[in-house]
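Database export, one record per block. Field names are fixed; values are copied verbatim from the stored entry.
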Amino acid sequence: MLQIAICDDEPSQLALLETFVSEWAKESRQEISLELCRNAEQLLFLMEERMEKKQSVDILLLDIEMPGMDGVSLAHRLREEGEKMQLLFVTGIAERAVEGYDVDAASFLIKPVRKERLSACLDKAVSRIGRQEPTVLLETAGALERVRLRDICFLESASHDTLVYCSGRVKPVRCIHGIAHMERLLGEQSRAFYKIHRTCLVGLAHVERITRREVTMEGGIVLPIARGKWEGLNRAYLAWYRAGTEQEEA
């Protein structure tokens, strides 16, 4: 699910952008969560709440001209705090759009905003998210949750469900699909996972040590390796490591 926020001090503009984004989501069959903010203070409070819940904003539509902290200053602060969302600046002064390049803005929208232009900018933002952060959509008992592949440490079978352990999270995500389904799903998107026994997959990026009987993950978690899996795990890890080294050298 895409997490989208809109920050604009003009009520009529905020309502218009909300309508356009909702229509774009329906037309492009995107499942979204939409948050509305009237100023920088409200947005910063929203970001703080989401940080506590280990959630992020994927796309932010941000008005430049706002009382108090303006959009450009707010964007700089968000980047300084490590926020990686796609920024779509909205402004009534075309000359101010150039200020967004310092914060890696994805697009600029000049008021009055046209629906077609906004839809194109949202499509661009989504494509950038896909290139930058490969993700997987996990189906839980009550929701859908998008998780970055690189954050997945390991997965364990839990009856008919799968527990997905991710870096930066205290509790695992309980996915309603079994471990075999998750193995196929992750295998379609990445070669960075390996099944060390019938009830467990490990993320190779989070492996610290491999022996014939066990693998040590980041944080000191030790997982047993099934008989006959050691050589395959070694080969998979070396292939993953070499691929990453070649990309860095390129």
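Remark 1: The chain has a mean pLDDT of 88.
Remark 2: Residues 97 and 108 are 6 Å apart (CA to CA).
End of record.
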